[in-house]
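I had to read the description of the data format several times before I understood it. The format is easy to grasp once an entry is in front of the reader. For illustration, here is how one protein appears when written out as sequence plus structure tokens:
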Amino acid sequence: MNERKTRAAAPGSSADVRARAARIVAAVAYEGLSLDTLIAAESFQSAQERGLIRALCYDSIRWYLRLDAILTQLLSRPDQKLSPQLRALAIVGLCQLLYTDIPAHAAVAETVNATREIGEPRAAGFLNAILRRMQRERQSLCAAVDRDEAIRTAHPRWLARSLADDWPDQSARILDANNAHPPFWLRVNRRHHTAAAYRERLTSAGIAVKAAGFAPESLLLERAIDVPDLPGFSDGWVSVQDGAAQLAAHLLAACPGERVLDACAAPGGKTCHILELQPELGELVAVDISAQRLLRVQENLARLGLQATLVAGDAADPAPWWDGRPFDRILLDVPCSATGVIRRHPDIKLLRRSDDMVTLARRQGRLLASAWSMLAPGGRLVYASCSALRVENSAVVEEFQRGQTGMQEVTHDVARQIGLPAATGTGYAIAAGMGDMDGFYYACLEKP
């Protein structure tokens, strides 16, 4: 056999890294698998290798739709067929030329070498020609695809259109924010430190803080770091949680002695924050439909030295698990499209479809009705989602309101109390990038 065709690059080599990245990108784009799950399943020989593969995968998926449009121009025929892995490898190669500081000669050479690792050595010449042409014609190729805003910002057209409809004055900024690398927010556990005291510890450790958030215990770091390197992380001093997500517990405003339900609780960030803010609760019940995901909630509670009642069950069908005693406060963080957190999960652009929104909105409506039935008179329910789309947010809340008598929507009053900027409409919508936060939506509903 020809040695050139059978020789494999050593694990961890540059060509091997490109090939592994291409396999992951193909699994997301063609099989609909989760990028986070695929990366978590990988093993790495070094922090450098892990960082490079993560960067190649996340940037290739983040910009996939634009890179794929450029690749289509580079093909000899627009309908030219490429195997999923070869197409993904070409995307990874183009990504390096456009979105990384990897020297172009190294990016081209090692990506071409990776054709052997994906089992397509005969495609080496083809891929080399594609990448070399990209180097020569970059300006004209990019200009041709960038006339279309959806392609320029690498969003599916249905999503770009929906954002334009729902956020007519901010959609362009949201599209750009979705392509930014996610900020690194911390939630300081005030059972141990104030934000100011923990900030001093960060500074002493050489970790720069960029800003504080609307939640008093939130801090934004200048750059991301490995979580174990955070002072006191293993001792429960601090957690990683976006600034927008940290608003949930403040909007809920649980009081001593109250019985609280955190519905759809996993992975437990908001569960823990509620307990950190109010250690004298009567009981906090955290419900999630996935028993496996509740293990993550328990891990977070244990690290922070907190306790809650964990229940595996469907919040939309409480009969099998609810004891009939009403809750004074309910946080309902509904399953959603996650279109407000695309910068953290860029595969959402490829995995979500416009038809999904109808199914999700129906599920959200059922969850809201079920949660409302468990709320005590005089109690507060906080409806939360990390969707950027009205169909999953204010439309769900408004439809439910029409069937209720005496319900009070108090979101703006509560938001003003915690220092959020004034807003209009039902609930409180946060655009991705506002205050360096993720996109989020809240509605505070009180029962007569």
Q: What stands out?
A: The chain has three domains: 3-154, 184-240, 247-446. Residues 236 and 304 are 4 Å apart (CA to CA).
